């Protein structure tokens, strides 16, 4: 887990719980983000990402535990202008031009960026005079991004910034985003695309059922999940003895006449496998990250600890 | 001027711009009372009450326009709740108090053009003549006196969905206008109804205007009961804000 190098963390969840009636949207979250980090909050729909973000922005109060922003109450920090946020489901405010909207938001902050620069960073300079409600989905998303940037905040929080975008718009979005993170801002974004998290964050925090289930760099997470696949024909439909304890193997199963091993190190697993038995129709692949993520979040979350897929267990 | 006040004023500026770009508001909110005034005074111009009716209807329609504009401001709150603008504002340095203050001020300022346009029409079209202080007092009183309706509209905006808020505010507008004698004077009502009508906020509000054009200050009872309505609707607005504003 990333430590905070002795500084006040930008964001600190301490045993944070948020309940809506009987539903625990956030279930005992302990997390700290340090200045300058680019963090991806990764999880399926309904995993608790938006609620976590609402807690850290002071839009919601935790039912138990605490959430701090720059060492203080989130509301106070938001009101002192240290945070810019792009919320989910923000439909553009009607009957204002892009420039008017960004100019107003910027003016609410103590030390905003010049509006022209914000528009440029978000790639919407050419839309400055257009009415916000007349823009396309991708353009609107960029306007929302500009709203988050306008005050030149220390922390940028983006809730599912690319959810409504097509592939090309998504790529363009991340391009603008990188230009910004190069300026040393702390950025936290949520997504349910592992690919995006992998490319655009240096730390990935995976949550599921409101709990932390993995935390680290993308390489660590991929390793922990085991994105390699080694498969071969199952001789009698049963799982051969000993394959689930081969080096690197984190999961093994037999289905449709094939034995499938999930591994963190396909090479080592293959070498050891050949020493163990004679595999027929051997196939070694590196599974997609999306698949790895699905695997990760379909595992039952071990109680609150940042565990990853447990070893062995054929299912 | 403090930075906080400047922020509120900029917020009001943004909201006013949005309001007056809303063609529907400009046509129906400002145009309708003027149109109704023109029609009422041209068809209702009976003999002995000629000058009186033009003045009576002027106060009635200016009040009706003010009431409608004040309530419309509340429907705008419901719109902003639905499109996430209120929530977005909560993640900027604007405090909830600044947003509410800005909203109320905006709603209050939306009333002015509705009032002024009817008074101008009365002056130019029907030659209504009063002392300068009366024009000023009438404008000022109808402006300030509309605050209870702004509160009511904002409360509905916070508590209800966009469509329901809209319908509710339009209904309130018509109900208060008709029962308050803004369209047809309460003196034409059956006596039982008139007795009730005289305690309704719409009637008391227009009364501020009628007293002014009659050349005297509004009565203490009128002001006190209207203030009581302000307290009631103000409390309702505070309740609405607490209930929905935190989550909006």
- What Rg of chain A do the Cα atoms give? 22 Å
Strand fraction of chain B equals under 5%
> Strand order within the widest sheet of chain A?
5-6-7-3-8-9
CATH architecture label name of the largest domain in chain A: 3-Layer(aba) Sandwich
Q: CATH class of the largest domain in chain A, please?
A: Alpha Beta
Radius of gyration of chain B, taken over Cα atoms and rounded to an integer in Å: 18 Å
Number of strands of chain A: 13
Number of domains of chain A: 2
How would you describe the overall organization of this protein?
The complex is a heterodimer of chains A (315) and B (248). Chain A has ten helices and 13 strands. By secondary structure, chain A is of the alpha/beta class. Chain A has two domains: 11-221, P-loop containing nucleotide triphosphate hydrolases (Rossmann fold, 3-Layer(aba) Sandwich), CATH 3.40.50; 228-286, Alpha-Beta Plaits (2-Layer Sandwich). In chain A, strand 11 and strand 12 (258-263) form a beta hairpin. In chain A, helix 3 (98-107) packs across helix 4 (115-121) and helix 3 runs parallel beside helix 5. Chain A is elongated, with a radius of gyration of 22 Å. The model of chain A is unreliable at 1-5 and 300-315 (pLDDT under 50). The radius of gyration of chain B is 18 Å and the shape is globular. In chain B, 81% of the residues lie in helices and 0% in strands. Chain B has one domain (3-245). Chain B is mainly alpha-helical and 248 residues long. The chains are: A alpha/beta (315), B mainly alpha (248).
